[in-house]
UniProtKB/TrEMBL annotation:
The keyword Lipid metabolism does not apply. CDD domains: ValRS_core. InterPro entries: aa-tRNA-synth_I_CS, aa-tRNA-synth_Ia, M/V/L/I-tRNA-synth_anticd-bd, Rossmann-like_a/b/a_fold, tRNAsynth_Ia_anticodon-bd, Val/Leu/Ile-tRNA-synth_edit, Valyl-tRNA_ligase. It is found in: Cytoplasm. One of its GO terms (cellular component) is cytoplasm. Pfam families: Anticodon_1, tRNA-synt_1. This is valine--tRNA ligase. The lineage of its organism: Eukaryota, Metazoa, Ecdysozoa, Arthropoda, Hexapoda.
Amino acid sequence: MLLPPPNVTGTLHLGHALTVSVQDVLARWYRMHGYNVLWVPGTDHAGIATQVVVEKLLKQKNNCTRHDLGRDRFVEEVWKWKEKKGQRITEQLKMLGASLDWSRQFFTMDEKQSLAVAQAVVTLWEKGLLYKSDSLVNWSCNLRSAISDIEVDHLSISGPTQVNIPGYDKPVTFGQLINFAYKLHDVEEEIVVSTTRVETMLGDVAVAVHPNDLRYQAYVGKKLYNPLNGRYIPVIQDESVDPKFGTGAVKITPAHNHTDFEIAKKNNLPVIPIINEDGLLNSSCGKFSGLKRFEAREQILNALGSMGLLRGIQDHDMQLPICSRSGDVIELIVKPQWFVKCKEMAEIASAAVKSGSLTIEPYNFSQQWCAWLDNIRDWCISRQLWWGHRLPIYHCRGEEGSIYVGAADDIEAMKKAQNVLLGKIDIERETDVLDTWFSSALLPFTAFGWPKESTELKLCYPLSMMVTGHDIMFFWVARMVMLGSCLTGKLPFEKIMLHGIICDSQGRKMSKSLGNVIDPEDIINGSTIEKLKQKVDDSHKNGILSKRESELASASLEEQFPQGIPECGRDALRFTLLSYKIKSHYINFNVPDCYANRLFCNKIWQAWRFSCEWAKNLSPNIDTLSKPEPKNLMDKWILSKLSVAVNIINASIPNGDFHKSTTAIRDFLYSDLCDVYLVCPLIFPLNN
């Protein structure tokens, strides 16, 4: 097994503790049944997440940015952070009692992993599976980088809502549907369109209506006048338009919307970007150029109002995409990015589940797995960051043309270029880094020496199973299967066991800003409310939490743990985590449950002490002990109860039904052993 590598962004949380507990029980159970068990630890460089944390720290401590330091010095600072946090994560894993093979510990940017990652990219290049293309990507203007779908949160907005956005002095209003008029060319008529993003009308290339919407049939093919830039745009039909959305007529801005981008491709419409990487309107926007996008919204609304074109603003429910790392509103922009062709790999991964050669537990995730893979888009693997694996792709320019090549280093790149280009050749390596999920998706085989065909790789790959949270099934697990099958010709494992997401006792997702993130160490060793609040204060001092967030978090801690958290010990923590139904979508963790299990662990200890004291009276010779035979009815009874418990445990552990095991253990030790069997010698004389 492979431990999903924790990110070096900070310390472990209860989600990590759950995964560790599940995998450790499986490892110990299989060892007890005679299997050779290898369980490998490691940590992940977590590109964008780690870069953001270190940037915030530098800003808070030294009032400088990564641009002030330059790329090389900034990366040095991140390595210092990694050494500190990586060591702390190792200490925490050992504190949790994880029986990992520490001699095999890896880091996703260590030398061996870096060489393997480069080889993987080059192999994909040589297979024709990599390409560069202008495409819409999730863009964080605050981070100046593309980010993956998993790094996008969706904030539910119900009606007008004020949202704080990085870089803005005052909150921005969302949750409004704006209706404005486009006038028809040379005719005193108009079409009223509905939009939540009026600021992007500077990049509009059409207005679309549904083909069956009779209200607009007479206008299809006619031209509308955009008063902000003087362009004329057509009225077109498209089945993707919802006639019930607003007025039923929508503006098409392909440079900043996925659906609009596809409509533009179908209708051969131009793509006109209007927002720069920094979130400012670009030079094509006339008098609005240089404005922040949401400041431009206000000015455009005012302009439409003064021209008599604003037709109303309605309350509107919506999902607002937010960058989970920076809190910025995600912008879709067209950028040249590197992509992996996924269709063939996805077909193999989907077919593996459909055929039963790869199983998923809980089984209900199988359908989601296949649906996602059967409709997969190509994977954007480039990130405009400084921390991570630089793409081993080179732009080679000759006297009569240029090409891209995939190569492990400059020398190999030059050799490949010389086979194609003439004359003097200049080579330049891509500055973008790889999506973190790319390097982690290679771990089932790179952790054992790939690309070398070593004995270790033959013995240890494929893995027996993969255990992780269901929230990263698509972003990590599916990509492990895709890249594993493509680069090795084998599925990376035969079984996937997915567990739920740890929430607090109220069912809320754990978040530093909510003050409900619990450090496993605080449960194991206990913590006062003062120490808990000090951690929040430290997060604020390091720039991780804003002042407002730290105040809310501290207040939440006061409410949840006014007396602090009692010392529970690691056995109680692990037993509590495994006593929940881990296959549930969400798992509500309750500290009082953990304290109750501390008392249960103490009960086991007291039972053991009692048994040892009683055994002294029997004076057994442990050197000559053999399998005991039950001598009376009570012995037979307790052994039968033990047999029932063992059967339940052995049936439930390999299937991930750990709550059945913990219930069986509790029932046997409490109800049968302690409450009945161990008190019998106190009630009945020994000779009877």
